[in-house]
């Protein structure tokens, strides 16, 4: 038996607010480096990162096996 595979993709073209930010990384190390650079940039401009409003979205790589929720 072969199950059909459905792949859904969404590309973010516009961020809704000036303070919105999207970090696109593959590894945990890249994410940490990007977050460090982002935090340093925010500090340089006197901005505060609000972790209460933060949302993390993760998309597994296309080669990852599908696991039903």
From TrEMBL:
Top-rank lineage group of the source organism: Eukaryota
What is this protein's name?
Reverse transcriptase domain-containing protein
Lineage of this protein's species? Eukaryota, Metazoa, Spiralia, Lophotrochozoa, Platyhelminthes
């Amino acid at each position: 038996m072969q199950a059909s595979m459905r792949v859904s993709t969404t590309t973010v073209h516009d961020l809704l607010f000036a303070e919105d930010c999207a970090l696109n990384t593959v590894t945990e190390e890249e994410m940490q480096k990007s977050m460090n650079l982002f935090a340093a940039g925010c500090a340089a401009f006197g901005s505060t990162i609000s972790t209460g409003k933060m949302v993390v979205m993760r998309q597994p790589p296309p080669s990852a096996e599908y696991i039903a929720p």
